[in-house]
Amino acid sequence: MKTRKGLTGILASVAMIAGLSGKVTYSDVVIKTELPQADLVADGTTVYQLNIRADTTQHSGVKFNSAEWDVSQVNPYINVLSATLPDGTNNTSGPSANTEDFFYNFLMDASFNRATTTLSGTDLTNNVRITNSPSDGPSDKTFSNGLLGKYTFTVNQNAPLGQNNFGLFNVTFTDTDFNVYYSPDINNGVTVQNDTYNITSPVVCDVPALTPLGGLALAGLMIGAGAYSIRKGLEERRDYSKK
To answer: How far apart are the C-alpha atoms of 112 and 132, rounded to whole Å?
Structure first.
């Protein structure tokens, strides 16, 4: 079993002491990495977004008061630029006004309400969200309104081409009855899904070099076009003067 962090870990410990954590026999909460754009150009400048979303509809009516996750497989060629909550903030009590937010319209514990760019190896750690009241939280969230956090990043020019994906681990959800749902442990209440991305090379438009003969031909065409334009202008001026 993994070591839980922060207040989420405290809630999990309370559940174990109370003998309630054994109730994680429901169908899984689903959490996923979502890439609105799957084809990533390795140019070091194009900015892409990674979203973390969750679905709790397998637990109808169950209220969740916390969520915690680490984003894994943030490879060295991925340059993370920012990490924020769905409303664009971090470490605030809210409530969030973004209707896509998993915790939309819920007051949060500002000390445990963040998405971060904190890298530990290839993992983004210390992402956590906890409601201000342990006895209240959202229920029946779908992916469309279950956004937990969002990140922006670029792909370095030396990135290996082909398919890969981000990952999620150290995932913990706690409900208002102190049932704990976590991953990566098997059959403990959380299923992880990851979108696949495909890294491609920047498009380079090569202009073929002109041979000396080709260059002379192009110059001739340009001179001819210029002469034609001057002649047409003179003819139009002469015709106008006759009117």
So the answer is: 9
